[in-house]
Design goal:
Length: 979
Amino acid sequence: MIRFKLKPLNVDNRKRFRSFLSSNEIRARFIDYFVKENDHKYIKSSPVVPYNDPTIAFVNAGMCQFKSVLLGQRTLAANCVANSQKCIRVGGKHNDLDIVGSDGYHHTFFEMLGNWSFGHYGKAEACHLAWNLLTLPPFNIPPEQLYCTVFNGDRTLDVEADNETLQIWKHIGVNDDHIVMNGANDNFWEMGETGPCGPCTEIHIDYPPSGGKNLIELWNIVFIQYSREKNTMRKLPNYFIDTGMGLERLTMVLQDKTSTYDTDLFSSIFNIIFNACRISKYTGLYDGTSLDTYYRVLADHGRMITVALSDNMLPSQNHKLRRLIRKSFILAETNFKIQPGYTLMCDIANEVSNSLGNVYPELIKNNEKVKHLIKHEYAIFNKLRMSVSKDWKMIVEECPMLKSFNPYEECTGFVPACNYLIKHKNMSNIPAFTLYDAFGLEKKTIGRLAEVMGKPVSWNELDEKLKQLQTKTIKHTERKSNNYMTGNIPKTDDSFKYEVIRNNNESYLSPVVIAKLLAIFDINGNIVTEPDIKQQGDMVSLVLDKTSFYCKAGGQQNDIGIVTTNNGIVFDVIGVDKIEENGVVLHHIKSRNWPILLSEKELHVQVDSNNRLGLMRAHSSVHILNSVLNSYLVVTTQLSSCVKKDFMSFTFALFGQTFSPKDALVVEEKVKSVIQSAVSVKRTTVTSNDLNQINVTLLPGEVYPDEVHLIDMYSNVDDAYISREACCGTHVQNTLDVIDFCIVQYKCNINECTIMAVTGPLCTNARVFGQQLLGKSNFVEDLANSTNLNNISPTKVRLLMDNMNQLKSELKNISQNYIPLKVQIQINKKIFAIERKIQKLTKEKKIQILGDAVKILCKDNYAVGYVDCDVAYLNDNCYDFENVIHICGEIPCLFLAYNKEHIHVYLRIPKEHPEDVDWLNNFWNKFDIKPIKFKNKIQFKATEFKVKQVDKYMALKLIDNVIRDVKKYYFSNVKGFDD
């Protein structure tokens, strides 16, 4: 049994508990009491993002990380533990979100102090431990203020009253009138409809003392002694103790405060808010409308947001978190007049990190990341506000009852959903499935909309359609797996896939595995029993009792290799698949000789070691790249990856950060440096719960199995992990074996970036081809540099453009040849410079040719005529007369040209000369166009246009007609014109 070694702090027993303990001291005292004085093992808090429980979005109780132990799925090395667990409650059964701020003790984030016994001690010890901690120094809570509740039995559960606990409390000294007997609703704990459960006993405090009228729950002690099954309640051979006490409430009591918000857990945050807004200090009013309510809400949400973000929860993956962040922005700007709102939230995040970072170091470690995510969320939020504000205004005008909603707190589809409802306002019911499926609204939001609009909700339709979708998914899954009738075949033992031998020359060998042949399937999924090649075809799949082949998983492609009979007949395995439902591995072969396998009982399985090594190199480089990116960027996360033989693709989130090709090259050098550091790579196996206790890179929102493989890259030089990641893939044993790393493609937008790279010998091939292409670009560059205004020609321009287009084509064609990103950048710079030079020279040549042609038409008093020049430089069908008009001096001008089925016209007349309206009307009519307004220049007014005329003969005839007409009827009237 547990040994009690109560060693209270050395304080005066007469000193009241309310005067000196900070929240940090209270938490530390709880942990020390159980760990140092009563032989419990300290287990640090798990992140608020559950690793192995898809049924909850947040860790909402201290028992969450021990759930698999309570379910009997695993055991702990320690039989009694204690911790302080970060908890978030914003939904589900324990949803305190709507109450936050309206009372003095509900929170979205809180800390649960707890101790557990896994079959080590029983009820008496648990009750004594709790009672002694509360009533002895330094807490010194007067026993007469404490009340205990006990389970009074339940006939429907077929469970008797917990008389044992009742007697324990009496033995401890609790008076009968301080013991309350309750039914199952209050004092029976269940994890779910089935599974472990049991009675609980609670310690309440009469606070402030009122003769038992102000009871507040402090500590809940659960005795998990039953297993609830379908029709019975089975008593467990050993039962567990699971306790929980909220730090916030305990601190309120020990600091003699009337509210948890009056404790030092919140006072420093209130100071941060006041220093930012300078409106009024927090006074603790509870009238529901004062600024104090918003103080409480903002402080509470700020703590929850900071903790969630520091635990790698992403707003893009959790709408509740995003909604709280947006709500906080609005509170900061609307109620506290802080612009922009994210600045106050970042200040609060700093304070939360400072106050809780000594207990939860990840808050300090990830502080910059948290603030960056807050700023990024504000940018998204602000963009949303700007885009929907006009639509929302129209919606509220159309349907004023929707004013009670804040569209900026809701999901992105909320405003479009409201638009949809207004457009279909004659609907008798609110279409729940449409709002849920098409617009992404939560059920709670749909219910609120229905209530406001006074319409019933078609919940039945939603439930039925969701069931249909679920059924379709199940059927699809079943069809895929049941295509192979493997129901009676045992799971394939594929643990051999991780067994490789590293030779001294840094090559790898996958050992031969001798396996039993269990079945052969044809392409239709039927077991083959007859050697009928005509009926079955030449493609079959083998099922073995064991294999060393890796099936596609975690982004890594499957192995290839061979299976060999005892007589030495070889069959190529061109692919493998695993049926997830039962773990059976299918080895696909294509051979007309497969019928001989029907007489074989065992086969020799051999993975293609060269192909496997290429996969291992690529996969290890993914981990190194991920690690480098996490240290290079303030915040990022892996979005996807693809691993092929000596090739990898990695997509990561940017959260508003820029990541240029120059950054990619810096990262490439860092990855290469890790490779050359000869860091050892090891695989270890842990339970998903062990992930809580180590620093490991995980995918946000990913649910991990009970058994997790870790890939550790540990540097003995730095005495630190280069990379530590959960992964089921295959890897080299030393980073040197990756040989090399070369980025060959880079794609980036505002949200994410994808890097593609090659490893091993492909790097050499890429660099060789890159140098060849660089040589071609140098040739084109030299050709461009030797081109000037005197020797440029259409032929030379075409040659340059053809070469550059070929370079561009080869740069894009990554499937044919890999090219180092560094070389791509160099070549693209050259192409850009060459194109700029060609454009400049071509433009200058066009002006030169056009100027020469115009100059011929200039006379003393006018310049009129057909512009005939080399159109080889006018492929863009643009005559830039404005750039050459200065050649003509200050005389009136009319230029006409014909090119590419268009007549080009430029007309300039003196500004002071009166316009001949009749002539101008005739001028426009000749071209069959409406009058075009003249643009005023300094001394002239001018117009320029082109009209389509396909027939060149007709075009030239019209041009001659216009030239004669202008000379005879218009320019003859211009002062100084001499016909």
